[in-house]
Design goal:
Length: 221
């Protein structure tokens, strides 16, 4: 197998492995999605392919073939940091930052020729993202969180009234944004809320429906 043909196979495998993990992030509408993960994996594989080529081209011992790969591991932190968002009392994007780091490591493994190891790592990572999220919800390890967008008729204490509905139902509000309509007739709220399980969102929707001041409610989780 020629060097060029082997390099092409490694690039294509990096494309597939990065795409598998990136697809899950894209489906969840995360900051770094399909294309970003594919590019990171391809770039990492290319770095290791180039490193091996330079090592073979020049006399062994004149350069460290792992040096370029080490720079990928440290440099990917800057890209991962861009996906982390702090919203008041919550931090989002940590899982996406971790998947970027993982696909970079997978790309390095592919570029180094460890195809089976890279394939297993891709499969395990994908299963972890899909299965463990459901397991957390079933075992209630982590509270289900979401955004609740509410449009209500304007009144002096409407914000306190809506917050009371959350609290009486056992929901925790970690953040709130609002904007008033120009005619001061309605107010649009965005709440960051969490509850022990997703099934309890139905209870919240019923409680909000019973509030005559609320015109529209949209729950995203």
């Amino acid at each position: 197998m020629s060097i060029e043909f082997g390099a092409v196979l490694r690039i294509l495998m990096a494309l597939v492995c990065g795409g598998i993990i990136g697809y899950e992030r894209e489906y969840k509408n995360r900051p770094a999605g399909l294309r970003t993960h594919m590019l990171v994996c391809i770039g990492s594989a290319l770095v290791m392919i180039t490193s091996q080529y330079l090592y073979e081209k020049y006399a062994p011992g004149t350069m460290d073939p792992a040096r370029l790969g080490a720079q990928v591991i440290s440099g990917i932190g800057f890209l991962g940091a861009g996906t982390i968002i702090r919203e008041r009392f919550s931090v989002k994007g940590l899982t996406t930052a971790a998947t970027l780091w993982v696909v970079a490591c997978i790309g390095i493994a592919i570029g180094s020729g460890y195809f089976i190891l890279a394939g297993i790592a891709t499969l395990v990572s994908f299963i972890s993202l899909i299965l463990f999220r459901k397991l957390e919800s079933i075992l209630k390890i982590k509270p289900a969180s979401g955004k609740v967008r509410i449009t209500a008729a304007y009144s002096k204490n409407i914000d306190a009234e809506i917050k009371k509905t959350f609290e009486e139902s056992g929901y925790k509000v970690s953040g709130m944004k609002f904007s008033k309509s120009p005619d001061m007739k309605t107010v649009a709220f965005t709440f960051d809320a969490s509850c022990p399980g997703k099934h309890e969102w139905d209870e919240l929707s019923r409680n909000l429906y019973l509030n005559e001041s609320i015109i529209k409610a949209d729950i995203e989780f």
